[in-house]
């Protein structure tokens, strides 16, 4: 039985390593944009780096459940374009993702995601978060072991399950994590 558990643990570790390696070798086609306007099936946005304005469809992303967060004019989004078809394959609302999130497990823990890509823990945690990004539609978190047993920076290709104004559900290290947004009050 111990051999079976070790084999399963190795399979999961190998799977995470393969996913991380694939995400590092595949070119990142994510564009960071400001949403100017939208309809039921198209987005008009300005790329943050080039200031170029484009209109692309997003019906495929909706159909494949690859729209995370609300589609709100003026918000910053991470989109994965498919230029030949003039559509986006995924949409993540970064304006909604950035902020303070507390875990729903009664641990008192949480995480803060900042606009510059930094990530940090709030309260007790098994990993110490370092940074985050959206890469080809995947939520990438980098971390080290919090107990000090290993300081190697690890990358986990997490997956956002759902994102709303007040709730974030994502996967990390083969676990599904549910969080609620906390309002940040300065000076209190």
Structure write-up:
By secondary structure, this protein is of the alpha+beta class. The protein has two domains: 31-95, Beta Barrel (OB fold (Dihydrolipoamide Acetyltransferase, E2P)), CATH 2.40.50.140; 96-182, Lipocalin, CATH 2.40.128. Helices cover 18% and strands 47% of the residues. It has helices spanning 2-25, 59-63, 94-97, and strands at 31-38, 42-47, 53-57, 67-68, 76-82, 87-93, 99-103, 110-113, 119-122, 127-135, 138-145, 154-163, 167-172, 175-182. The protein has an eight-stranded antiparallel sheet with strand order 9-8-7-14-13-12-11-10. Mean pLDDT is 85; it is low at 1-23.
Topology:
Elements: H1 2-25, E1 31-38, E2 42-47, E3 53-57, H2 59-63, E4 67-68, E5 76-82, E6 87-93, H3 94-97, E7 99-103, E8 110-113, E9 119-122, E10 127-135, E11 138-145, E12 154-163, E13 167-172, E14 175-182
Parallel strand pairs: 4-6
Antiparallel strand pairs: 1-2, 1-5, 2-3, 5-6, 7-8, 7-14, 8-9, 10-11, 11-12, 12-13, 13-14
